[in-house]
């Protein structure tokens, strides 16, 4: 059921299925002009980038983009109460069903697409008919409640249209129509005569709108702010007969001013099809004339011409004396908006003072350790727990160097001895970091996330890797064995002892039990231990969801600690080589095995 006054009092959150930048920006503009502190639209379900940039007032904001509804966090799913579906006509039904099944606190939505198969509209109606959910459309510009809610293209698609239509002030005229264009036209007609709109709704031009005109009229009747209903109808269909019954039975007692377009169709030998799917009169009762007569008999004020319709609106409109200065101020305020060239959530400048994560740099640096600063910047938000700070500090110290033998250090040394500078030598070392050197922490984190989230047994998890003949990142060591364990791993695991929840560490240790039963050196290594404990700290102490942890793995967050720490070691090797000044490096001939095996092939 559509309850307009309830929506005025509700702190609703909107998600869109698909992206429509013009409409989305107009919703944010409406929210800002209406005095909201933040946008009501909080997510977009679409392929592409992870965020889309829009303006909220003069400030640019990022709206998160989710590839599927399953990518939305459980917390956010509970917050979402309204949806806009911009999918193509053929995809509307499946995507709408997915939305209805995903968001537990959904109040309603609107479908923008035309040419939705009629059976899909009927199935959608059947799905919600016994639920307290409304869906407007298909082929609808949506719903607008001045000063409170803009759900779709209703009222216009830029801030000038919203301001000119006086859609920041609540009024007393409800505007209802199947036509999106006429809905917006009549809004401007009402406000042009000095009136204000209580709400406006386009139930859509398809043959079977999910929210029927009858239910739209009942919503207007229930709305305490609405005094007059202005209705623009068309030839085709029999909705007006249902509306006349509402008027005759006094289920709708408010004054109704209406016009039914399409009387020209009676001049044709065969009934013509007009723009909307329903706009085809196949019988006398579906003609504009027949509908006007039935509504007039029921007590509506029915215009015979469009000019008369305008005159009726003018006669019935309550005139408001709202100063134009406020609207002009808003117009000037939003006129000069420019998109930024770069987006940063890490740092910036405020009145000449450098900022980190929204705080003064000097103050931030004075209050926090390097480990705290590094982990906060890597996460893009200030960390909450001492446990994460202490763990990152220990890992940074633990990973700082692993001798001059590993590929990253060798590349740094060779480049330094070739006479190159610090940055070039460091870059040469860093460029070796990847799946075979230094990249295993992130892969291990991905493994533990996959294992815990899948719900598979540890044996099945291990066998899955074995069947694909793939090593499990985070498991295995050349030197250490189950009977000769790595002391560094034991120290890392001590940090998990402080946690109430340690799902990932437990899973990693259970994997180790299974793998060491096969071979003694298939133990949990440093990479696997760091990944498991870090996941548990982020989950238990930083309160990050599994979806958020997965996103960290996707962007290589877990490798960032290794890269930061090992950079110190690479720089040290560079400086060491500059002090030693051994000259350019060249391999002795006896260190190279020459072979013609490939030539023989």
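^ structure tokens above, recovered residues below v
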């Amino acid at each position: 059921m559509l309850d307009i006054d309830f929506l005025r009092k509700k702190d609703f959150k909107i998600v869109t299925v698909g992206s429509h930048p013009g409409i989305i920006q107009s919703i944010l503009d409406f929210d800002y002009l209406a005095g909201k502190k933040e946008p009501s639209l909080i997510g977009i379900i679409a392929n592409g980038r992870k965020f889309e940039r829009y303006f909220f007032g003069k400030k640019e904001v990022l709206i998160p983009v989710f590839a599927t509804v399953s990518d939305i966090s459980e917390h956010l799913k509970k917050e979402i109460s309204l949806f806009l579906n911009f999918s193509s006509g053929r995809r509307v039904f499946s995507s709408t069903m997915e939305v209805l099944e995903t968001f537990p606190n959904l109040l309603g939505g609107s479908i923008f697409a035309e040419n939705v198969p009629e059976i899909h509209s009927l199935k959608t109606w059947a799905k919600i008919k016994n639920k307290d959910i409304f869906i407007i459309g298909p082929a609808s510009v949506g719903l607008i409640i001045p000063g409170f809610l803009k759900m779709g293209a209703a009222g216009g698609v830029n801030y000038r249209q919203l301001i000119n239509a006086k859609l920041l002030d609540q009024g007393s005229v409800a505007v209802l129509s199947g036509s999106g264009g006429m809905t917006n036209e009549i809004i401007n007609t009402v406000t042009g005569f000095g009136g204000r709109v209580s709400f406006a709704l386009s139930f859509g031009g398809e043959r079977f709108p999910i929210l029927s005109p009858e239910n739209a009229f009942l919503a207007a009747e229930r709305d305490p702010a609405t005094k007059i209903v202005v209705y623009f109808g068309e030839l085709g269909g029999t909705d007006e007969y249902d509306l006349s019954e509402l008027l005759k039975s006094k289920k709708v007692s408010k004054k109704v001013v209406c016009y039914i377009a399409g009387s020209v169709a009676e001049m044709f030998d065969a009934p013509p099809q007009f723009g909307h799917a329903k706009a085809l009169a196949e019988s006398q009762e579906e003609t504009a004339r027949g509908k006007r007569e039935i509504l007039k008999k029921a007590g509506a004020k029915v215009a015979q011409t469009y000019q008369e319709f305008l005159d009726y609106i003018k006669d019935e409109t309550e005139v408001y004396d709202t100063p134009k200065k406020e609207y002009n101020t808003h117009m000037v305020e939003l006129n000069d908006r420019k998109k930024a060239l770069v987006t940063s959530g890490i740092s910036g400048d405020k009145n000449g003072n450098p900022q980190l994560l929204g705080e003064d740099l000097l103050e931030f640096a004075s209050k926090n350790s390097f480990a705290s600063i590094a982990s906060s910047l890597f996460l893009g938000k200030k960390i909450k727990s001492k446990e994460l700070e202490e763990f990152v500090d220990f890992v940074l110290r633990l990973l700082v160097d692993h001798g001059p033998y590993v590929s990253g250090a060798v590349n740094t040394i060779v480049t330094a001895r070739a006479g190159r500078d610090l940055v070039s030598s460091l870059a040469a070392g860093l460029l070796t970091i990847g799946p075979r050197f230094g990249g295993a922490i992130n892969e291990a984190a991905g493994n533990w996330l996959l294992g815990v989230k899948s719900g598979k047994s540890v044996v099945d998890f291990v066998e899955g890797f074995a069947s694909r003949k793939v090593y499990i990142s985070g498991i295995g060591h050349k030197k250490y064995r189950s009977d000769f364990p790595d002391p560094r791993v034991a120290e890392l695991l001590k940090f998990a002892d402080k946690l109430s929840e340690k799902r990932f560490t437990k899973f990693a240790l259970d994997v180790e039990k299974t793998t060491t039963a096969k071979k003694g050196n298939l133990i949990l290594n440093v990479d696997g231990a760091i990944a498991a404990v870090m996941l548990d700290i982020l989950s238990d102490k930083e309160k990050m969801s599994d979806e958020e942890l997965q996103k960290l793995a996707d962007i290589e967050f877990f490798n960032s600690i290794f890269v930061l720490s090992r950079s110190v070691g690479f720089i040290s090797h560079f400086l060491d080589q500059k002090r030693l000044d051994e000259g350019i490096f060249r391999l002795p001939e006896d260190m190279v095995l020459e072979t013609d095996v490939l030539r023989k092939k």
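Residues 4-227+318-330 form a domain with the Rossmann fold fold (CATH 3.40.50.720).
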